[in-house]
What we know:
With 413 residues, this protein is an all-alpha fold. Helix content is 78%, strand content 0%. The radius of gyration is 20 Å and the shape is globular.
Amino acid sequence: MHRAWFVAAVAFVTILGAAAFRSLPGLLIDPLNDDFGWxxxxxxxxxxxxxxxxxxxxxxxAALMDRFGIRRVxxxxxxxxxxxxxxxxxxxxxxxxxxxxxxxxxxxxGSMALAFAATVTNRWFTERRxxxxxILTAASASGQLIFLPLLSWMVEKxxxxxAVVTVALAALVVVPFVWLLLRDHPADVGLKPYGAQEFxxxxxxxxxxxxxxxxxxxSAARTGPFWLLAGTFAICGASTNGLIQTHFxxxxxxxxMRITAAASLLAVIGVFDVVGTIASGWLTxxxxxxxxxxxxxxxxxxxxxxxxxxxAPSVHPPMLFFIVxxxxxxxxxxxxxxxxxxEQYGDDSAIVFGWVLAxxxxxxxxxxxxGGVARDVFGTYDMVWYxxxxxxxxxxxxxxxxxxxPAPTVVAA
Length: 413
């Protein structure tokens, strides 16, 4: 077996560990409200900072990986996640929640974002890139699957503090594996990338990581496809991390459902997210990514319009159908989005995707905050579900109008 698959396996486990924290915010909204009296808007603001930094850090992290190597950046990022979530145990004021949960963990998870997956895929693979992207994207869902039921049980039985300690330890345990097993480039071990016909030498470290990230942004921002990709992915983040991951558990609790039952439904989303994302990667290798994106967003928007009618004190078959369907579609958008970035922007695609991912997290941050505010003002989440469904319909139309990159002109000798 090619070494690239072992590197992909380490990357999968690494993203899995970082995903442990991202499964926690929706479980803590009600406990923190009960213990400290903080409003859902205040708690949502901390989640918003985390989600925004998760996205805004990604392009700089991709550039830092070109400068210092994947292994060093990822090890530092996991340590920051462990530090931020561990310090949350002793917080007593809202500003400490913003600092630990928002700033530290946001920077750490941002360095572990999907731009990391894109960097690993671009360096180690020339074939099966769509499939590998789908597998690494599914790692985040797998982390949710593993940790969410355990964390929800801890929160319900032993309050929220043991849950944040568990997250800190989970991120810390992954660090040795990254340092010992992850390698920056196939040339480090004398190999060609998987599927490559020729040996690819390791490029020299790129100086000025921050300047390069900003330069790539300005270059991409002059093209129409960048804004369409960023807009669609912002809606993707708004309708997943910002909406369902953050607010589904408290919304279900508003209708009388137990927290552990609602958290288990999110875990089921994680199960089918793995299936849907890997399948999407396989489809992206074979079908037009623009059409795949349009189908994914359209179906997601339709499902959100039905959600207010499905929430109830107990789990019933129509709710299970929604959970399975939403899980299959959760981040199925990532492989075709990465493929379109690669098609449009070539060697800079990992950094461009980092900026596109930043828009994903900005969208998620806005809905995480505005969803909490809407709940405080209206006493219900219904308006949030309907507005998100309409946004998904807009994203489907935007995906269809992304132009193809012209094929290079071959000049006859």
